[in-house]
Amino acid sequence: MTSDLPLELVVIGIGVAIGLAIYFFLSQAEDRSVVRDSLRQLDGYEVENVRDQELLNPLSDRAIKPVLQGLTGLGRRFTPVGYVDQVKQKLIRSGKAGPDAADRFLAVRVITVALVPVVFVVWYLVNPLGMDGMMQHAVFGFAAFALIAGPDAILNRNVEARQYELRRQLPDIMDILVISVEAGLGFEQAIDRVVQSVPGALSDEFSRMLGEVRAGSSRADAMRALEERTDVPEIRSFVLSILQADTFGVSIGRVLRSQADEMRIKRRQLAQERAQKAPVKMMVPMVFCVFPALFVVVLGPAIINIRESFS
């Protein structure tokens, strides 16, 4: 135990030295960031040195943003025609639309594709799990397929999840709209009440629609934009019925009540459809996971006894 003490002291000393170095580096970086923030707040402050002027910018603008732009340009160069527009449309439908959302997605897409040869080299040359034969090829094929198709699959899944949430919330929101309109509120005031009282994806879409109307767009154009952003059949039917009511002068309250009844029926049918699909989806895990274990438990002792009897 005494012979190991000097080694422990050396390890502790090295750890303390590394910790002090990291602390000193972080403290200096924090002080510099405070100075840069203070300099940015000064009006008319000018820096003659180009390097100092560049250092005033945040680290994300100096290091991360150029890399992101390079990966985005590479992704745009090797993507098919119309793929970027499809990605932007899917990002809008998933509720994650932003000025740089498509660029970030393309950058991630380039990184995942570039990881395929890295995985190939590591998997076949290093072989960390010691596999060989068909199992090694199958695992690499699965990993390569996951890296290539993974970002698109995740994006499609996010779109489906948001559309399902919109379908699930629509009947309840329609009931609130019916009550509000029949109580004397206008259509836009009723939607504003829904936005304030019911949080969720559909309320966010209605809030954006109200913002477009208040910015000067017509109600018809704002509702058509809502229908294009969501791409949900129930919302499309709701938008068309409201537009027809405005065109032909039909009472909006009566249209909303009929739409609310129809939406509740569709939500019940959607729940029944998902319930009827459950037994079919359960067949795969039952056949490949449950039944083999059940056969081992039930038939295993019998097979062992039969083997011992004949031996």
From TrEMBL:
Protein name, as recorded: Type II secretion system F family protein
One of the Pfam families matching this protein, by short name: T2SSF
Subcellular locations according to the entry: Cell membrane
Keyword annotations: Cell membrane, Membrane, Transmembrane, Transmembrane helix
Main localization, broad class: membrane
Tree of life domain: Bacteria
Residues that span the membrane, as ranges: 6-26, 106-126, 138-155, 282-304
InterPro entries, per database record: T2SS_GspF_dom (IPR018076)
Membrane topology: Multi-pass membrane protein
GO cellular component: plasma membrane
Domain named Type II secretion system protein GspF: residues: 175-299
